[in-house]
Amino acid sequence: MSLQRNGVAEPRRAALRRIRNRALTIGASVVPFGLSFGAVSVETHLNLAQVCLLSLVLFSGASQFALVSIISGGGSLFSAVGTALLLGTRNGLYGARINALFRPRGWRRLLMAETTIDESTAMAVAESASGHAAYAFWATALTVYVLWNASTIVGALVGNALGSPATAGLDVAGPAAFTALLAPRLTTARMRLLALSSAAVAIATVPLVPIGAPILIGALTAVAALLVFDR
Amino acid sequence: MRLWLTVIVASLGCAALKLAGFVVPLRLLESAIARRVLEALPVALLSALVAVSTFATGNHLLLDSRAAGLAVALVLVALRAPFLVVVVAACATAAGVHALYR
Closest-CA residue in chain A for B36? Predict the structure, then answer.
């Protein structure tokens, strides 16, 4: 009996260790992004409390960086928030998948929803066959949450300490970060065409519409065109 | 004040979107059209963000040090360089070009 239990316990422990290691690797990979976000945010004149609120509550890197990028360009509340929300819609889809896997209730549901992001969803889905999906979700979600918040605070403090002269060139941190986030999604010719047309429409409307609006106009036009061509 | 409002509205809105996924039926989100839109939106938004935050200053189009930074970022991303390398090299390039031509 004890032998049998040991026989079962060993692979389980090994699986959990493998998952923890993977979660740490994924957590470490968000640190550079968090540092850049923190530094760019204080350069945009967000204070430390505002940077922390974004990382604690909004907790979605692309939306946070887009929001700050549009604010720093002088965009309106509407275009900044609108872009952040549209970028956040994919988390809704992830949430639906996570909900189908775990069906959480009560406070657990709130906590799970808040920490449902690209990384935790991918890990939970990947481990759903091994039977350790819940462990994979929480290990990844909590590791990323802690490291993301810690790295944005450090980035903000370092950005504050360095001051403006040393942060010259930081205005290209946004474009560089967005390029890095975009690249893995450009796997098909269809997606590359979508990206190019969205960028082209956005650029063309810069002189014509309020600051920040070109991003929404470009993206929504390109997505609408994609749907029309798909028919 | 406006900055606080922007931060709070965006934070609560994005948190609400995450929760919405737990409430809206999965089959609604996995319908063909919803899937296509949800897959396309990040690509379209991120590419528009790259273009505008590189080439626009206010309502003007401007070719400046940021374009050099983006060019370096594109090359490094194509070479699969780590995130930090991409961002730091792009910023350093932009700062260098800015210092040379001001």
Answer: A227
User: What does the pLDDT look like over B53-66, one tens digit per residue?
Assistant: 999 999 999 999 99
Whole-number Å distance between alpha carbons of A173 and B92: 10
Residue closest to A98 by CA, chosen among A132, A119, A124: A124
Q: Which two tokens stand for residue A141?
A: 């979600």
**Predicted ipTM of the assembly:** 0.94
Q: Which of B15, B37, B73 sits opposite A176 (nearest CB)?
A: B73
| β-bridge partners, B60 | B57
**How would DSSP label each residue in A72-110?**
HTT--HHHHHHHHHHHHHHHHHHHHHHHHHH---THHHH
Q: Give domain limits for chain B.
A: 63-102
Which A residues in the span 76-115 are in contact with B, Cβ-Cβ below 8 Å? 77, 80-81, 83-100, 104, 109-110, 112-114
pLDDT bracket for residue A10 (50, 70, 90): low
pLDDT at B102 over 80: no
Q: What is the pTM of this model?
A: 0.92
